[in-house]
């Protein structure tokens, strides 16, 4: 770990309009999803973000890469304040932070071939030698180059997620956000994708934020772990320390609730 | 005595077999896990028992015996009556399993009124008792609520109460906790186990999660490509899995208590082995 | 799964080819009507009035589908009538589709104030009773092909706008749209490359339905004598005239009705068939 900070997030707040409680006339009340998040990510770190539904983990991720605009607080990426940047100003920066989505079926346009899906960000960001870079990205994720002409529905779940990873690494970003990227996969392809991600982190020196509800996956992949509960940071520490000696009650509860495939404890 | 016995069940879609000579049984009071990855046919078995198979699926041969009644031999109307009285389902998604435009109470009592011919008043009392039994505070208020006013865990409790309402002999739980947070999952799994033990119900637990199996089941059936690979006790399975595919599945599941163990994806050779078994089976039965 | 899909595809194929066959035939007939028609569709011959179709006794082989009460050839009139029907279907259908889809896409994908403006406009528009609206329009603009087309477009663009808006909204929530944004694609370009191809099957189905509706609207307006001049043969005016002599000469009514029915049915079937072709999952 170096002291080179890639993300610096301070007192981040974000809310959505609550349409369920909107009065007949006038604006809807707002639900606060993120209630003041502080977070630093150093270059080369792999950070796990864990929490239940409603913890705000996906919202935090989408705010980091500015798919959402925060209400207040600040997000600095490579030293630059991107909290309220306009989309036009963000566009040229987008090659530097990429995202891998949870559901590869809905994040890959069903009407485009694998080749044009991966080439998309490269072309938009004005890269040269696009075709060679697409091949290179496919090589990195261990997919044969002939897959360029395939459509997403012709691939298995694990292969689709590899395409999502290839698209994210193709622009050689400084930072990748991975949002629940193995939760929709079978155990066997999940293991493959996790191993691939570990290998890419090693080879390409990726900085990665890995959002997941699965603590076993986080423990395996991440150096630091942030536990979120209802929009607030419960703990943000070294992964090993956090798992071996959880400080917060909620973290202990979370660890205790994981059904491990062994016979040490039977629930009844 | 078995509450449920399936013997050599074969089913197909068009010409493609999806269940291949499936045999299994669930004893009184037993909790059996039905384990497999997507496409293994585990949900199809549950649907075959409950008579809710999609129309494209055709049962070719085999017997499903529910509490002494051979379901395939019954007329469709009698079959529905038998299944309705003796079996129930805890569904996967508590969001879509409850009708969003109706209050919760009638959705529980309907079964009692329709199947057992109870009066509305009796059914209402029973529903309140059941909601109390699944630890729902203030059952009277919850029965008047609409599903969207309740949390996911709460809705799943209601579905559990509703499954046990008519005192079925067999409950099929189809991935009942995949849509829930881990902390809620633990409470719900415990609840299902407690209810099952108290009512002496047999439980067929469909899941892809070996961790869940180890916590709630006594025995399990491992499926791949609609074929039973292994049928064993849970202690036996986790100590010494009996099929290479079972062992590979275990090795591919990460454990936070053992982060440095290498995560081995199911090896291609193992998959090829299972596929060869399936092919041999199909050849024997003239499917190829 | 694979097998079930194959079945769907084969069936859609037969439907697609049958309806496409009828429509191609109709287009050829419309284009070459002057060459193909056995008679002048306007030529009256009171001595040859109400001749029956070719298989009945007393038929004249020069008038294969018989003649009407003024002695005009029914087959020739149907062939010329196809010209009006197809022009209205194509021009009105496409114009309605383009205007409605563009507005629907913008409202559904960009949301915000464009959505508010377009949705309110649609709501207000749809509060007008369509038949009165079209009659009023034609009363103001005068009869003629152009008026009919404008009437169809003005009334029916809301149908496209509403459906395509809803469809664009659901596509807009998909992750591949977010992913295109992460890639740095411009909003307008996302609409064209990510949203449009995925709402295309719906647009195609709506377009063919709209073409059928346009054919029917033209027939209805002819029927109430609000279409183009009564001299030019249209299916609607033939049906209207045939109604008067239904007991003496049923064929004057029935044959244009069959042509109308087959055309509208083929258009809707073509839409269903094409929708599958546009879907890479089913292709």
Automatic annotation (TrEMBL), chain A:
Family annotation (Gene3D superfamilies): P-loop containing nucleotide triphosphate hydrolases
Pfam families (UniProt xref): ABC_tran
Domain ABC transporter as annotated: residue spans: 14-255
Keyword terms: ATP-binding, Nucleotide-binding, Transport
Any coiled-coil regions, as ranges: none
Molecular-function GO term, any one: ATP binding
Family in the record: Belongs to the ABC transporter superfamily.
Name of the protein: ATP-binding cassette domain-containing protein
TrEMBL record, chain B:
Primary subcellular site in the record, as a coarse category: membrane
CDD domains the record matches: ABC_NikE_OppD_transporters
Keyword flag Translocase: yes
Subcellular location: Cell inner membrane
GO molecular function, one term: ATP binding
SUPFAM superfamilies: P-loop containing nucleoside triphosphate hydrolases (SSF52540)
Membrane topology, record value: Peripheral membrane protein
Keywords noted in UniProt: ATP-binding, Cell inner membrane, Cell membrane, Membrane, Nucleotide-binding, Translocase, Transport
One Pfam family, short name: ABC_tran
Domain ABC transporter: 4-250
Entry's family note: Belongs to the ABC transporter superfamily.
Name of the molecule in the record: ABC transporter ATP-binding protein
Automatic annotation (TrEMBL), chain C:
Coarse class of the protein's main subcellular location: membrane
SUPFAM superfamilies named among the record's database cross-references: MetI-like
Entries under PROSITE patterns matching the protein: ABC_TM1
The keyword Secreted is annotated on this UniProt entry: no
Record field: transmembrane: 16-37, 84-110, 130-155, 195-228, 248-267
Membrane topology reported for the UniProt record: Multi-pass membrane protein
Coiled coil ranges: none
Entry keyword Membrane: yes
Cellular localization per UniProt: Cell membrane
Keywords, comma-separated and alphabetical: Cell membrane, Membrane, Peptide transport, Protein transport, Transmembrane, Transmembrane helix, Transport
Residue ranges of domain ABC transmembrane type-1 in the record: 82-271
InterPro entries found in the cross-reference section: BP-dependent_transpt_permease (IPR050366), MetI-like (IPR000515), MetI-like_sf (IPR035906), OppC_N (IPR025966)
Family classification: Belongs to the binding-protein-dependent transport system permease family.
Name listed for the protein in its UniProt record: ABC transporter permease
Organism: Pseudodonghicola flavimaris
